[in-house]
What we know:
alpha/beta
Amino acid sequence: MVDSVREIERQVLGEIWTSGEMMESLRYLCDDLGSRFGGTESEQRAAAYLQAKMHEYGLQNVHLEEFPVYAWERGVCELTLTAPLERSISAIAMPFCPAGDFAGEVIDLGEGETADYERAGEAVRGKIVLSAAETNTPGQVTLHRTDKYRLAHEAGAIGYIMANKNPGLLHITGGLYARKPNGPEDIDHDGPIPAVGISHEAAELLRRLAERGALQVKMHLESRTWRSRSANVVGDVPGGESPEEIVLFGGHYDGHDIAQGAADDAAGTLVGLEVGRRLAPFAGQLKRTVRVICFGYEELGLGGSWKHADRYDSGSETLLFAMNLDGAGRGQGGQERITVTGAPELRTWFETLPAQLRYDFEVANRISAHSDHFPFFLKGYPSASLSSADSTAGMIGRGYGHTEGDTVDKVNLRGLQMGAAFATRVALILANAEPFPAARRSEEEAHEVLRKSGQGNFLEHHWGRATRVLD
């Protein structure tokens, strides 16, 4: 074993700071391969590329972890205002939006939060809801897009128009949950009601026109849902003393079909890959195994993380910790945050690291059900997310995320390097920490933590693994 983590750090950090490898890979994934939308050839080519990179970097036990999924292909999307005047409105169908022709009166629910639905009551039934897709600003926690969609469906709405809160003529997108999870037919995996995304400017136009009288719209939608495959890309830096003990670092490499998915989450994926690249020469010199994973199919239902979390059920390996890198490597660097998942004792431990690393970062404790840490949390594994503030920090919701604006120019090499340097240092500490700072809960204990947080509905959630992962 190397005598000091600091000794490895000195060797690792210099290489991170002098390499442009991450930016070269970012450009290839985004410019050459495109969106890497779940279940498509673009995603499959990205998996092959990442697997080849792991081999090139010297990671061990490199392999694809394949699983069957449902894929979706968009076609024509026409949103037409028919009253109080006729006007074509630029819109895109949300992934897994059902095909067909739909028409109805629009009801504007503003932010689309729970209170807005409670105020509207029965007025939602039989209408097409218009609301913001996401409304949170930094420091706030508001409903996720899929929760707003669920509330509309449960209230009897016949359709949904989701608006981007950020100006710039950017459409908002995001997957819908299945109308019949585990259903045998392809159509069972379409959403229960149609939903389209529009720009901030289009939504404001609709609201101005609503002052003249009731809004009436019609939608013509074409799409295709079919069975396909996705895969996680997995590689190890084996530990020397306890190689069966795993600390996991990973981000998702899939994106949405309308964008390059550069910040969400090619950047985070490449931060994880860089952790593997720089630690691979030290295989056998760390106490525990550092496992790097590039998750597939996150945007359409957390498919890769549901699949990988099951791997540890056999007991041949012991997962000690999972770090989700969805959001890492963005911005200029220097504004990293670690958010632990419902574990105050783990938050306390992470709060000791800034002094040890001589590097300030924020630590928070919050449960979110909408990224790749969640399946691990449900199984009781200690987990957290590492993210970086970026140029969209003053914007609402995801900023450029889930829009056409999530492109390579929004990511820079310095941010990637800062994220990778920080993630690598944390990985080194976790791989050697004695005693390990957190213990696994039972699944029952994890579920109780979720209930106490007011999110017990996610135990039987529409965004659970049954949505579109087939095995």
